[in-house]
UniProtKB/TrEMBL annotation:
The lineage of its organism: Eukaryota, Viridiplantae, Streptophyta, Embryophyta, Tracheophyta. Gene3D superfamilies: Vaccinia Virus protein VP39 (3.40.50.150). Keywords: Metal-binding, Methyltransferase, S-adenosyl-L-methionine, Transferase. This is Caffeoyl-CoA O-methyltransferase. The keyword Oxidoreductase does not apply.
Length: 251
């Protein structure tokens, strides 16, 4: 979600993610069950630096944009299971998912991360430094479409990445997909966040929603259909956090 979201909707209908923070960002119907998952399997394994950054970010006015702890744990697991070394991130905010990535990568691994705002990244940067993983992080300020195009301009980057995580600028996911299918190698993974958009993708079209949620939900619905039909990838849709889709590049 981008920072324009909460103000961009207009009208009096609340944002579908209002009152969301890292303690309740789930599609599970029972908050008690989500708390159980977090308390039992997630938070006991959250690194101190991750916890400190998460709690600082929860207090930020746009803190609801932060990835949830179970999502960060999933990213860490995927990165380790796939042995990813060179990765990309679109949408850094204060860096919670970025720090999870940097911690999961091997010491000579690298994540190139894009965000239009350095200001948010500067909040998280000290936590990345304190964790001793700053050497793995290459932050690039600016629109990710431009940043990815700049990478594509160098032939050496084509198929050079093992993994990408996309969490910004939902209406452009379809464009990121085309760029990332060239940057991520065959067999590599592209992970999209917010692919259930607070469950709105399954609501009847006449359901009251603010303009921004309607627009983003429609963009995500379109993405989900395209990904499902895309024979260049194998997809796995997970109903954790705000919906996550894992794509494995086939060709
Ligand atoms: C949902 S937040 C990312 C959250 C982050 N993954 C985390 O774990 O905390 C989305 C971020 O995307 C950034 N953003 C929005 N539009 C963008 C664009 N076109 N290019 C790059 N970043 C963008 C926003 O500045 C914001 O920080």
């Amino acid at each position: 979600m981008d920072p324009g979201m909460a103000t961009g909707g207009g009208g009096s209908i609340p944002d579908v993610h209002s009152n969301t923070d890292s303690s309740n960002k789930t599609l599970l119907k029972s908050q008690a069950l989500y708390k159980y998952v977090l308390d039992t399997s997630v938070l006991p394994h959250e690194a101190d630096c991750m916890r400190e950054l998460r709690l600082v970010t929860d207090k930020h006015e746009w803190g609801f944009m932060q990835s949830s702890p179970d999502e960060a744990q999933l990213l860490r697991m995927l990165l380790k299971l796939t042995g990813a070394r060179n990765t990309l991130e679109v949408g850094v905010f204060t860096g919670y998912s970025l720090l999870a990535t940097a911690l999961a990568l091997p010491d000579d691994g690298k994540v190139i991360a894009f965000d239009v705002s350095r200001e948010y990244y500067d909040i998280g940067r000290p936590f990345i430094e304190k964790a001793g993983v700053a050497h793995k992080v290459d932050f690039r300020e600016g629109p990710a479409l431009d940043g990815l195009d700049a990478l594509l301009a160098d032939e050496a980057n084509v198929g050079a990445f093992d993994f990408a995580f996309v969490d910004a600028d939902k209406p452009n996911y379809v464009k990121y997909h085309e760029q990332l299918l060239r940057l991520v190698r065959v067999g590599g993974s592209i992970v999209y966040d917010n692919t259930l958009w607070a469950g709105t993708v399954a609501l009847p079209p006449e359901t009251p929603m603010n303009d921004l949620d309607r627009r983003f939900s429609a963009a995500i619905r379109d993405l989900n259909v395209r990904l499902s039909k895309d024979e260049r990838v194998e997809v796995c849709q997970l109903a954790i956090a705000d919906g996550i889709t894992i794509c494995r590049r086939l060709v």
